[in-house]
Amino acid sequence: MHNGGEHAFGPDEYLYIGFGDGSSQNGAEEGHVEDWYDGNPGGNAQNVTENLLGSILRIDVIDQSNSQPYEIPEDNPLVGRDELNEYWAWGLRNPWKLSFDSTGRLFVGDPGGRKYESVLRIEKGSNYGWNVKEGTHCYDTTGPDRSFEDCPSRTPDGVRGGEPFRDPILEYPHWDEQGNPIGIATVGGHVYEAEDIPAIEGKYIFGDFSRSYKYPAGSLFAASQREDGSWEMSKLVVENRSNGQLGQYLLGFSSDQDGHIYVLTNETGAPNGDSGSVHRIASPESASPEVGADTDSNRPVDRTLGVAGILAGLSGVAGYFLSKKDSEND
What we know:
Elements: E1 7-9, E2 15-19, E3 55-59, E4 87-90, E5 98-100, E6 106-110, E7 116-121, E8 133-134, E9 137-138, E10 170-173, E11 186-191, E12 204-208, E13 219-225, E14 231-238, E15 249-255, E16 261-266, E17 277-282, E18 304-310, E19 322-323
Parallel strand pairs: 17-18
Antiparallel strand pairs: 1-2, 2-3, 3-4, 5-6, 6-7, 7-10, 8-9, 10-19, 11-12, 12-13, 13-14, 14-18, 15-16, 16-17
């Protein structure tokens, strides 16, 4: 079930909360309310009056002058209207991990329904299109494998004035053009703001849970913004792991005050067992060897992931990768 992802305080000291759309995979199961789009049977992420699902919320938990658990910031986009005022952005499927960088940009990984994974740059009052679209692609909740091009790119004029959908800054498919797996669920990360690894400094580091649900094969990616405002992504090489691969399920990321990034993994893909590990992304010179020893359990572990650089791209997917200017759809 897509119930929620992560929450974080922004530079404005307000709390930002990611909520999934509350459904299972296809986004059309029991629990969805009616929305404006007749092409699918309902969708929580496009209805901002009935519940708070499929969204990024923004609340003030510091000001409790009215004896309430939280207050609504006055500059939230729907304040003073008939919609629910907690909303900051909507039209998301399952915001899984969000983070701010030092400049205040808010990034979210949004796993797709069936074919495509997305990275979003969250902007005030933006609609990201789910479940009318999966990323930039039209989506049919009753036939999610179907491909078609006839769907709206904005709400009707009678729905919040006809707001345009904001596209993801990056998008990738589950398989490349040769049928090789790329990933199945994107995991949002952090901007690398340490100075230890020049090749990834200033890049948004994120990843994918695994290339399969059957075995641990998570991936790490780096995204960067070009001078024209568009984005590109490449795969990270883990130099102290076999074949440069992570070799575990990727669960999440964290960062410290110096801008280093930590990677959370395990070997089961679920909250069970004792294989969970936290790794720090480091230069190969300072990284652990591939296999170490956990003195408590004698279980093989490594505590750092040696990353020297990035691949020039992923073979066979150039036609699928999406790179959009931040100013598009404004």
